[in-house]
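re: that chain from earlier
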Amino acid sequence: MSFPKSKSKLWHAVFMGVSLAGASCEPVAEGDVRVTMSGGDGTQRGYPSHLFQDGWSVQFTKYLVSMGDFTLTAATGEKRESSEHVLVDVQKGDIPLTELKGLTAGRWSVGFRVSPPREGTKLPDGSVSAEDLAMMRERGYSYWLEGVAVKGGVGIYTFRMGFPVDARMVDCVNGVDGTLGLVVPESSVAEAEVTIHAEHMFYDRLGTHRGVELRFDAFAAAADGEKVITPEGLAEQKLLDLRGLDGGELKDGQGRPVVYEPGAYTVRTLQEFVTQSIVDQAHLNGGGVCTVAH
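^ sequence. v structure.
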């Protein structure tokens, strides 16, 4: 049987409409993302003396991190966000934060914010006290850490230090494979670990991860009479006039003056230097570096 051309075109249009309608009903491939936070071996086991240019070893007993607003962005511009803000102690181990479900399978960019506790900040795992949360919120700290530092022939020093970082981390590189963001797998779960690199606070230069030395002599020299190091003590160490434990010019083991290199940053004290140094210490999946967007 044959149809007139006009009817043939009509039936073709109807057939194509039905076909497209059927195609649009096909399910979109989806997957999930599980978000955790880790301080890695650095916060959990500490740093041995061979890593420090001046022979100190450091062990943390508390390493509190305040963060939230974890955001995934697809190439289409679609965004999925967890608006939760949390305060956790990564010294106690790896901590699950949230899970984003039903994401379109494919590549998503990753972002999050490290910032002081706010109203509604949660304590998801019970490792942080309400008193610490209130203290950090009052002082504007997003990091608070406590621990001990030891050097043979010098002694044992304790530290209780907080730092007022407020930074949006975006365009994170995945530390697993070096690609941007992460790939949400179909019918499976992608892992997104915010990894804290605590060694940043001991760097002696800013603006680079290359050629840095880990140092602690300047921290120890900022301690009070009880050998306790505080943010106020670090603020007394002037970068252009660093003092040693004997009150004289700070020098290394070869008798050379110790220099902290600020790069392009305007910082005057050791407290300001360390605060700037740890701004970008939150990485993705191990060593994946993020861009800082304040």
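The helical segments are 5-24, 40-45, 130-139, 217-221, 231-236, 270-277.
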